[in-house]
């Protein structure tokens, strides 16, 4: 077990067990760092974009993305994972970065993608829709692709303008190598579920915020905006 200093002074507690199912949730992956940068970029170009908005992180793992979003939102983001160990680690990371009575402290809860009961439980606790859904390096296991996108569709409201500043968008950052394994299934499912996807130019992201440029492999990463039509 070791400590990593991450986004703007946020601490994460990584666990070194990399050989078990679910170990992906115990590491900070490069795509999460890029998504954190993009959130900072959006907050700079649209200062009130996340203020008072409902934010859901899917496949939170370490929770770095959700914690970064909480820096710009007056409402606590909801951080989710299917893995009990990941939830425990999320809570540990939150305790390292927030006081128990902090108004913006993110909330953790278990969420199994595509499972109606799990999604219903989330709806009962936190509502049927979110303004922003975020996720990083979560398109990997083939069996999880369809349930992930079904879950995203469930919690997005239709957005006609397809502008990130209007909200109701799923912001996904994924390593190209991971996505290419399920490329056809991913894009076919996006179309079948009535979602609209567009790729964002990562060159617009400033690299002088909190991560060294050599740790941000932009050319190896997709950054997508996904809207429900």
From TrEMBL:
Protein name, per record: Uncharacterized protein
Species: Planoprotostelium fungivorum
Transmembrane regions listed in the UniProt entry: none
Coiled coil regions, renumbered to chain: none
One term under GO cellular component: protein-containing complex
Domain of life (superkingdom): Eukaryota
Pfam families registered for this protein in UniProt: Methyltransf_16
Entries under InterPro entries matching the protein: Methyltransf_16, SAM-dependent_MTases_sf
Lineage: Eukaryota, Amoebozoa, Evosea, Variosea, Cavosteliida
């Amino acid at each position: 077990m070791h400590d990593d200093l991450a986004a703007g002074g946020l601490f994460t507690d990584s666990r070194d067990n990399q050989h078990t199912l679910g170990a992906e949730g115990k590491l900070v992956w490069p795509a999460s760092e890029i998504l954190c940068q993009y959130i900072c970029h959006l907050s700079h170009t649209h200062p009130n974009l996340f203020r008072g908005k409902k934010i859901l992180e899917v496949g939170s793992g370490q929770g770095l993305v959700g914690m970064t979003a909480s820096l710009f939102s007056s409402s606590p983001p909801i951080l989710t994972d299917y893995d009990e160990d990941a939830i425990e680690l999320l809570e540990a990371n939150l305790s390292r970065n927030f006081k128990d009575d902090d108004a913006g402290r993110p909330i953790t809860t278990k969420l199994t993608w595509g499972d109606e009961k799990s999604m219903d439980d989330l709806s009962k606790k936190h509502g049927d829709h979110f303004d922003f859904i975020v996720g990083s390096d979560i398109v990997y296991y083939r069996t999880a692709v369809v349930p992930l996108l079904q879950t995203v569709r469930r919690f997005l409201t239709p957005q006609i303008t397809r502008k990130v500043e209007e909200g109701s968008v799923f912001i996904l950052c994924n390593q190209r190598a991971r996505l290419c394994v399920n490329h056809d299934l991913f894009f076919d499912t996006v179309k079948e579920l009535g979602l609209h996807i567009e790729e964002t130019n990562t060159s617009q992201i400033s690299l002088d915020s909190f991560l060294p440029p050599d740790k941000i492999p932009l050319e190896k990463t997709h950054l997508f905006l996904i809207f429900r039509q």
